[in-house]
Here is the input.
Amino acid sequence: MTWERDEFGNRVARVVANRVPQAIDFEANFRLERRSASVTLEAPPWRNDRERLAYLRPTALTAPDKRLTAAALDIAHDAADANERAELAHVWTAKAIAYRFGVTGYSTPAAMALHLGLGVCQDYAHILLAVLRLLNVPARYVSGHLIGEGAPHAWVEAFIERGPGMIDVVGFDPTHARRTRIDYLTVAVGRDFADVSPTSGTYSGPAQGRLAATKEAEVVELDASGPAEAVA
Here is the structure.
């Protein structure tokens, strides 16, 4: 097993097994510390323009259609600055679809979820990403946990410049129609869900493979005057 960092800064474990007698199990435990619900950076999170464009260009899952483009144009007309554009995009997305499990899948693009009017957290995130990028607001997909919910969760972080070299990282959760709080625990970030899939790989053999995964997160220490820590 080897560990590495991907282009988005995520820590990735690569495992190669030459043979599997019956099954192979993976167990990962990690400790995560949160100090604030929002962050102000004194330097951009990207090293060059190419990396910045990765959070501005559409992907297969965030490609805009006419409805998304029209929404972005309306928001751009009403908003005074990038912060307001991001806020209005979040408000619009939270109302754009209704939450329903089982209608969409991991490969459902934002435009299709919007057409269906239904989706889950990743669909809300993809729709918001599509609109933010049309508004020229760099933004990334976040996969993680919301303490108190059993399933993994997804939300969006927008990068909003507020001065020379100063960038606010603002988290939006359109599924719950609110900004993220300190109980949102980030596991991985990327351009869309395809960049942060919890597990991926290939299997070759005569037997049929099956993947099963479970996750859970719990608070192990909470200090109102300092950091909060969680283990997953």
Q: What stands out?
A: The two ends are 20 Å apart (CA to CA). The CA atoms of residues 35 and 227 lie 5 Å apart. The helical segments are 49-54, 66-78, 82-96, 110-116, 121-134. The chain has five helices and 13 strands.
